[in-house]
Amino acid sequence: xxxxxxxxxxxxxxxxxxxxxxxxxxxxxxxxxxxxxxxxxxxxxxxxxxxxxxxxxxxxxxxxxxxxxxxxxxxxxxxxxxxxxxxxxxxxxxxxxxxxxxxxxxxxxxxxxxxxxxxxxxxxxxx
Length: 127
Prior knowledge:
This protein has 127 residues and is an alpha+beta fold. The chain has four helices and six strands. It starts with 38 loop residues before the first helix and ends with a strand.
């Protein structure tokens, strides 16, 4: 017997009563209110504990052959800068540690990303 596939390729339930139900509304204490602040104000509260050893290493030899430069477009802190020789320079001292550069990079081995050592990195402080 063939079963019809529903959304995302999963079989649809045979019986409508077996469909998942919507969870009840949240009960309990109210959620905290976040202050309405601008991005600039929020980023002014960020502390960067910079380690001498960078947590991201960029292989500029690999980057010279890259035509898309996805890391430069994707980095929310604009820390990737083209160099005169066709490579890419990376400045780790203001990095948010999101890792999006390593995810979008199309060149294997160009970006080596790891978490900063304990006690170093970005510290988000607000409230």
